[in-house]
Amino acid sequence: MFCSGGRVHRAQTAFLIIVFVGLAALAASCSRKTPPGPQRLAVLRFENLTGDPSLDWMGRAASEVMSAELTGSTITSIISSGALHATDRLLGARPLTAPGISAERPAALVSGATRILYGRISRSAGNLRLDAALFDTARQKIDRTLTARASESGNIIRLSDALARELQTPLRPFETQNPEALHQYCGGLETTDGAAAAQFYARAVAADPNFGEPYVAWTQLAASQRNQAEAGRILAGSLSDQTMLADLARYCVPAIADYCSIHIAYW
């Protein structure tokens, strides 16, 4: 028994079509890459190279402003300075005012950072200048460098904002444009003296009552000291801003979570 030539030809053609479709599907499957997840970015404290110690606080300010503005991105997850310092305490605390590239880099790596942004503040011809490098932790190389500059009269908030815009737009607006409020807030972040930190945060909210971050840090400080009365007083001072209250509720630690919820529900 044998098949006619037409039947053989049709069978061969059908077989070749099946093979071709199978190979095409396999090629498409092999070429399709799993989309990468959000990058985990740690913005480290900038180093002050101006020679003016009165500007040391700006190193922390640049980090805080950029981290806050980049928060909420769909492509980048920010590792906060608070998270870095919590990890750092497990590794062995380092000076909070030290340059981030030396003091915060180990904590950033342990925290799972896939990108690390570090930089410096300098002066040049009457201008303040921020220079930063974006480091890829997997490839162990610098991805790109960033620069922003402004006149000495320009403030660190706008300068940090300009640097952040080189990484991403749009940005989440920073909560204050008041340099003194930010200065006092950074002072609170960089002292290990609880009483001094509370005074810094108090001065920060006095300079800008709508600046939420000092309220959050101040409430957390009171909670860590098991001082619910103080936490309540801080909350009472922040009741004029509903967004701020929502932030406080999100960041309240378990020791005063119910207290936060009661105040926010009431107001």
Describe the structure.
The chain is α/β, with parallel strands linked by helices and 267 residues long. The protein has two domains: 39-165, Rossmann fold (3-Layer(aba) Sandwich), CATH 3.40.50.10070; 179-266, Serine Threonine Protein Phosphatase 5, Tetratricopeptide repeat, CATH 1.25.40.10. It is 54% helix and 16% strand. Strands 1, 2, 3, 4, 5 and 6 form a six-stranded mixed sheet that branches. β4 and β5 form a beta hairpin. α9 (212-224) runs antiparallel to α10 (228-237), α9 packs parallel to α11 and α11 runs antiparallel to α12 (254-266). The longest helix has 27 residues, at 5-31. The N and C termini lie far apart (92 Å). Residues 13-35 and 253-267 have low confidence and may be disordered.
Shape descriptor reads globular
Amino- and carboxy-terminal Cα gap:
92 Å
- Which topology of the largest domain does CATH recognise? Rossmann fold
Unreliable spans: 13-35, 253-267
What structural keywords apply?
267 residues; alpha/beta; Rossmann fold; Serine Threonine Protein Phosphatase 5, Tetratricopeptide repeat; 12 helices
